[in-house]
Design a protein that fits this description.
Number of helices: 0
Largest sheet: 7 strands, mixed
Strand content: over 45%
Helix content: under 10%
């Protein structure tokens, strides 16, 4: 499975970014039936699940981003997104997209099987 994030970069506090993850190869059946997620990782805080979205669009978010971040997916394009609004310096991190195969349900605590390379987000005060 090949996955590539894009859309990261520097942004001022209060600004917005939209991350994208393109899954160029997915040989494990229908991409419709996978759980998709965005994670972030820093040396200080380790890895944190930020948002997940199930095949039917149901989504879950970590409390710190609720109301500011929105996860979405386009199964036909094998692409999913993380719209991040009202960013603050605490959101500074490397963001990773991830796929959990054969999973109609989706939860922040689930194990994910495939990962992108990461894209950096830097929010300045």
């Amino acid at each position: 499975v090949q996955m590539k994030e894009s859309g990261g970069g520097p942004v001022q506090s209060g600004g917005s970014l939209r991350l994208s993850c393109v899954v160029s190869e997915y040989p494990f059946g229908s991409f419709d039936r996978v759980c998709l997620g965005w994670f972030r990782q820093t040396p200080e805080n380790g890895r944190e699940a930020v948002a997940v979205i199930a095949h039917d669009g149901r989504s879950n978010y970590v409390d710190s981003v609720k109301g500011r971040f929105t996860i979405s997916r386009d199964n036909d394009k094998k692409t999913f997104y993380l719209q991040m609004d009202r960013l603050n310096p605490e959101d500074t991190s490397t963001y990773y997209c991830a796929v959990r195969r054969f999973s109609l349900n989706c939860d922040l605590k689930f194990e994910f099987h495939f990962w992108g390379q990461g894209t950096q987000v830097a929010v300045s005060a």
